[in-house]
Structure formats: structure tokens, C-alpha cells
């Protein structure tokens, strides 16, 4: 019995139906009822990856919709550290192969281990730490790597976990012995890196705060509020994610958003996301700001009359004088050598931004002091302490 043309047609359709595994990220999002007028590609001459509008978008238009079922939830409160969420993610991928397979287009979109697309504290070498020129930041990096190692090798004691001195989650605790040992430190550090850098604050059960991963939207690059052209938001009712233009965007233009107020400071972006922007007028590093990361801008600092003082000038000057290199020397290192790796470039860019911000702020305070005839010289309101780096 020969097949009718109709039967042959059906056979062809069935064979050519794409498996989830073969879908591109955008096809996968559309197959689940989402949509996005975005493409992923290089956004600058250096080949930085980002997102580009695929058509003209009007101000106020929501041009990306990611349904809730495509969002990766860690099922843990927001204060969980990235290594703990990385352990949850790796465990679920291994314990639930069907779920893992269903999300393959998303996993494939994440930076591969060893790729220069992502750089964070878990993959810092001693060389990167030395390049920071800051003992407190070096301490934060070592501490965070230590926490990741505790989660990775389950080395913290039960009483340390009970006292809150160690993370409560360990990879061995979530996975059976053999499987946990199958994950290399490199894979774990890399996973921790993107879980931390790509995570979004989102709503969990009963409205609690948690951390989520949101496919595609996690590839939108960060920009300062003056230049960012979009915002990412979660729908209160159904948990889906959207991206809305805050100004008109032309087809082919890069789409950017401001990650958070803290992300306006170079030390935070370096340690949390692995980059430092190249800005003419950067804000002070959180470490050098009297209130840490709390304030979204430095103008508030300038409105703080008690900070318009010679004491503050001396404090900022002593930070500037503590660096073994000048901004000019850092610039020369950054632009004079083609042998630098991306991670080293980011640390050098941070050093330049930090020094530039200190210099700018010193100039502003000194000008203000001259106008007001010298200031009081007193600093009464320093109770908030030095900007302490908390990640
Ligand atoms: C586990 O991590 C801790 C903290 O870094 C380290 O001191 C210890 O040697 C590690 N143990 C193993 C077995 O890797
Ligand atoms: C380790 O992982 C590989 C690939 O991910 C897998 O094929 C192998 O079965 C795993 N071994 C154990 C003991 O889980
Ligand atoms: C979820 O809410 C958004 C509006 O924020 C709406 O566009 C979308 O259709 C809703 N999705 C579902 C599944 O109800």
C-alpha cells in the first residue's frame, strides 16, 4: 500500500517540527507564548554582547514579554548568596532532566565557562586581586570565594551554619555524593558567577522577595539613567516579565537599562557584574562614598553641608594618595597594552573611574568651600560610617 501525498506531507511536518533542544532562544520564547522585538549580538567595536531593537519602538511601548513559565526561580529568599543559588540550579538540572531539557535554549544562551563575556569575583585570580589596589575589596573577594568554596565542598560545620557563620546550603547536601563530586570547582565558580550577575530581584510565593533568572532580559546591558532607554519589570498579578521603552528606540539601536542604584558605582559593578563603565563623570565608588551604596547620586552628598569641609577634602585626598599608581598611569596601562585580558581591563577601568570620581568630587568640594568662605571644617554627621562594601 502506497502512502497518499497527504500522509507524506504529515510525515515531513512531523520530522521537521523542531525539538526544544534545537530552538534558538527567541524561537523558544515565542513557542511558549512570549515575544520580543530584540535580537542578541555585538553592540560595540570590541564585540560586547548585548540586545538590539529589531524595529522602531515608541516611548512607553512594552516590546518584550517573557511568560512566567520561562523564569528560573531558586525557591529561596532574596538574601541567599549566589553560590547557594548556583548549588540549587545545578542540583535541579541534574535531578530533573526533563526540566533541564525544556530550558536548553536558555542554558545555551548563557556565557560558556572560560568565556570573556563574563568575569566575576569567583573567577578572580591573585593577580586580579592585586590589581584592585584596595585591601577592603581584596578582602570581600576572598571572603566571597571562601563562601563559594564552603558551598562547593561542604566544608562548613553544622554549628557554623546554625550560628549563621556559614552558608546553610552545600552542594553535597542537595545532591547525592557521587553527583556532587562530578561538578568541578570551575563549573561551580562559573555558575555562581552568572547566577549572581544575571539574577533579578523578583516576587516569590506570597509576594516574598527572591532571586530569579529571566531569559533574554538578562542579556540587556547596563547604562546610567541618562542614557538607558528601557526598564525591565515583573507583572504583580501573573509573574511574567516585560521590558518597556522609556524613550523612543530606533531599529538596530542597543537596548539598555539601569540595573540598580548601587550599580551606578564602579566598585559595585566590578564585583557584582564584572565590568566598569567608561564614564567622564563617574560617581564615587561606594567604598569612598560616606554612605556607601545607599544614595543613587552624588548630588545628595554635595547637599550634605557637613561634608563641604576641609576634613572631607583631607579624607578624599588621603584615599587618592594611597594608590600606588596615578589615573594617567592606569590609562596608559589600559590603552598601551594589547596583551591585557578582559578581566584585567575591567579592573583597570575601575581604578581609573574610582580615581576620576575622587578627583571630581574634590574639585567640587573645594570650589564650594571657596564660595562659602572656607566651611566649618567640622564633620558632625559621620555616623553612617565609611561606605562599607556589602554584596
Ligand atoms: C574546602 O574549602 C575550604 C575553604 O576554602 C578549604 O579550606 C578546604 O581546603 C576545601 N576542602 C576541599 C576538600 O577542597
Ligand atoms: C558525571 O557527569 C557526566 C557528564 O555530565 C555523566 O556522563 C556521568 O555519568 C556523571 N558521573 C556521575 C558519577 O554522576
Ligand atoms: C500578564 O500580565 C501582562 C501585563 O503585565 C499581560 O500583558 C499578559 O497577557 C498577562 N499574562 C497572562 C498569562 O495572564
Q: What report would you give on this structure?
A:
With 391 residues, this protein is an alpha+beta fold. The chain is 41% helix and 13% strand. The chain has a four-stranded antiparallel beta sheet with strand order 1-4-10-9. A hairpin with a 6-residue loop joins strand 2 and strand 3. The longest helix is centred in the last third of the chain and has 30 residues. The chain is globular, with a radius of gyration of 24 Å. 33% of the residues are buried. The site of one 2-acetamido-2-deoxy-beta-D-glucopyranose (NAG) has 5 residues, from loops. One 2-acetamido-2-deoxy-beta-D-glucopyranose (NAG) binds next to loops.
Mean pLDDT over all positions: 86
Q: Which spans of ≥5 residues are poorly predicted at pLDDT below 50?
A: 8-17, 375-391
The hetero compounds bound to this protein are: 2-acetamido-2-deoxy-beta-D-glucopyranose
Radius of gyration equals: 24 Å
Keywords: Methyltransferase, S-adenosyl-L-methionine, Signal, Transferase
Domain SET: 36-260
Biased composition (Basic and acidic residues): 379-391
Organism: Coccomyxa subellipsoidea
Amino acid at each position: 500500500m502506497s502512502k497518499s501525498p497527504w500522509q507524506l506531507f504529515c510525515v515531513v511536518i512531523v520530522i521537521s517540527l523542531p525539538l526544544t533542544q534545537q530552538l534558538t532562544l527567541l524561537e523558544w520564547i515565542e513557542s511558549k507564548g512570549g515575544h520580543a522585538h530584540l535580537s542578541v549580538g555585538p553592540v560595540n567595536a570590541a564585540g560586547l554582547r548585548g540586545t538590539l531593537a529589531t524595529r522602531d519602538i515608541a516611548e512607553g511601548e512594552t516590546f518584550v514579554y517573557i511568560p512566567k513559565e520561562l523564569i528560573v526561580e531558586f525557591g529561596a529568599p532574596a538574601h541567599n548568596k549566589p553560590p547557594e543559588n548556583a548549588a540549587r540550579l545545578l542540583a535541579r538540572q541534574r535531578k530533573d532532566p526533563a526540566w533541564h531539557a525544556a530550558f536548553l535554549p536558555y542554558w545555551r544562551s548563557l556565557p560558556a565557562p572560560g568565556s570573556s563575556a563574563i568575569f566575576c569575583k569567583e573567577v578572580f585570580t591573585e593577580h586580579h586581586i592585586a590589581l584592585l589596589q584596595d585591601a577592603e575589596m581584596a578582602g570581600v573577594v576572598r571572603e566571597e570565594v571562601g563562601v563559594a568554596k564552603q558551598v562547593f565542598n561542604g566544608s562548613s560545620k553544622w554549628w557554623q551554619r546554625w550560628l549563621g557563620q556559614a552558608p546553610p546550603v552545600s552542594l553535597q547536601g542537595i545532591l547525592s555524593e557521587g553527583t556532587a563530586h562530578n561538578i568541578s570547582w570551575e563549573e561551580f565558580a562559573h555558575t555562581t558567577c552568572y547566577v549572581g550577575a544575571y539574577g533579578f530581584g523578583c516576587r516569590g510565593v506570597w509576594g516574598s522577595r527572591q532571586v530569579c533568572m529571566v531569559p533574554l532580559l538578562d542579556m540587556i546591558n547596563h547604562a546610567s539613567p541618562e542614557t538607558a532607554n528601557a526598564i525591565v519589570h515583573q507583572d504583580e498579578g501573573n509573574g511574567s516579565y516585560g521590558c518597556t521603552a522609556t524613550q523612543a528606540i530606533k531599529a538596530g539601536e542597543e537596548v539598555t537599562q539601569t540595573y540598580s542604584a548601587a550599580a551606578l558605582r564602579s566598585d559595585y559593578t566590578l564585583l557584582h557584574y564584572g565590568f566598569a563603565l567608561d564614564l567622564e563623570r563617574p560617581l564615587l565608588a561606594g567604598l569612598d562614598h560616606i554612605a556607601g551604596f545607599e544614595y543613587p547620586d552624588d548630588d545628595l552628598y554635595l547637599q550634605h553641608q557637613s561634608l563641604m569641609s576641609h576634613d572631607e577634602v583631607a579624607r578624599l585626598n588621603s584615599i587618592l594618595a594611597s594608590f600606588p599608581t596615578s589615573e594617567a598611569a592606569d590609562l596608559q596601562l589600559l590603552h598601551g597594552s594589547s596583551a591585557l585580558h578582559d578581566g584585567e581591563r575591567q579592573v583597570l577601568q575601575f581604578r581609573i573611574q574610582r580615581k576620576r570620581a575622587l578627583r571630581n568630587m574634590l574639585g567640587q568640594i573645594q570650589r564650594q568651600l571657596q564660595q562659602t568662605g572656607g566651611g566649618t571644617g567640622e564633620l558632625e554627621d559621620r555616623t553612617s560610617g565609611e561606605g562599607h562594601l556589602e554584596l
